[in-house]
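input
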Amino acid sequence: MLNILKLSKTFSKGTVNEKVAIRDVTITFNDQDFVTVIGGNGAGKSTLLNLISGKLETDSGSISLDGVEISRLPEHKRAPMLGRVFQDPMMGTAADMMIEENMALAYRRGKSRGLRWGIGKKEREFYREHLEKLGLGLEDRLTTKVGLLSGGQRQALTLLMATMEQPKLLLLDEHTAALDPKTALKVLELSDQMIREQALTAIMVTHNMKDAITYGNRLIMMHEGRIILDVSGEEKKQLTVENLLKKFSEVSGDTFDSDKALLA
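output
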């Protein structure tokens, strides 16, 4: 589904602030893979997602999605193929618009809209059915301004909007990091449910080692812009935080430097 070949990215090249964020990364993600990505601060996790989505331009290398080379496509041309949920619950929705208006924007993205903006009865029922799946009571609040929702409700809505049209690839960038533990668990469970039910291919960056082990069928660990560990199947099922840390030290020759990940 996703093929990355010799991908590299350096920030502030040629200056005293030069930082190599991604170093010659080559990896293939299979159809319906749910891959969790873990790594210390500055490992290159979010940079990798930004290169895939087109938010950042690559320095070298190629990215192919479902057989289509997308490395040189601008972000807006990749957007119809991708669903993305960010760390900040405020980023995926428009606060001053109603829930149904936000959903209409997501549902109609890339479609011919004509001159009609109004939301008809059939379309509204379609949104209500989808919101019902969240189990948050939002199906009865279609005309509520999104800015009045809690962070967890807003993130769940963003997740729903990102998956409504079954994207070729779903990118989850630490999408529960800003939520309290109880709400984060709810959003994670919803994410897992939607990915499985819709047979999506997904990449989830997380700061939480336990979540990286618990969710998905495959785990990759990054360090200093490289992928140093790629575990799947039964091997992943047997992982614990302790032996994951041990593997990290063995492969990298370093100690894991993210207190946030260890304490989560």
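quick obs: Residues 2 and 65 are 5 Å apart (CA to CA).
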